[in-house]
Amino acid sequence: MLYVGIDIAKNKHDVTALNVQGKTVLKPLTFSNNKAGFELLDLSLRQLNQDCLIALEDTGHYAFNLLNFLHEQGYKVYTYNPLLIKEFAKSLSLRKTKTDKKDAHGIALKLLSDPNREQFQHDNRQVELKILARHIHRLKKKQSDWKVQYTRCLDIIFPELDKIVGKHSEYTYQLLTCYPNPQKRLEAGFDKLIEIKRLTASNSRAFCRALKSSPNHQIEIRNSLDKTIDFSYSLSFS
């Protein structure tokens, strides 16, 4: 069994490999952060004719493509928090003269000497779930921001709406999409309003009465409404 350490950077990575005695069996190699570089790494490791365990620091998106490649090639991969590697390197006095090649050697040593390495085994599914969770969180934050703006605008241009059907519903959004200001809704009249899905006759009549006294007939709410609907639609598929 060989223990491989990879030091991750933005454009290139450094790798070294140790045997069970801690002896270097792969001369320090630098490869590019692209497909050609990954294939060079794979070829170099396969030429050693031994099974390999591979470790690297959990540095975020710089290693994303490499991790996918290593999993596709069937390698067992481990990812360590950079702080753990830093503390381990200090214990070995490896960082007095810092180089990427020494970093790769330190990562390989950490993997070799770690009796608890299995808890650091990398799982692509967990990473994908983490990415999706972060994306959903960002969407919800943006949706919340646009809802605040939408509500503020609605309170100005049509404060009566909330008492009739509320501010957030499918038919409220459809109503405001078709008729983005009170003047257009007033011109549409009862017959057009009643065509809106789930909007009852009594609510349509209440709209018509309220529209006649609405203070701002010309202001539209289109932009904040569109954003609110877009984010609601995105989250419904998350």
TrEMBL record:
It comes from the Bacteria. GO terms for molecular function: DNA binding; transposase activity. Residues 4-159 form the Transposase IS110-like N-terminal domain. This is Pilin gene inverting-like protein. GO terms for biological process: DNA transposition. PANTHER family: TRANSPOSASE FOR INSERTION SEQUENCE ELEMENT IS1111A, TRANSPOSASE-RELATED. InterPro entries: Transp_IS110-like_N, Transpos_IS110. The lineage of its organism: Bacteria, Bacillati, Bacillota, Bacilli, Lactobacillales. Pfam families: DEDD_Tnp_IS110 (PF01548).
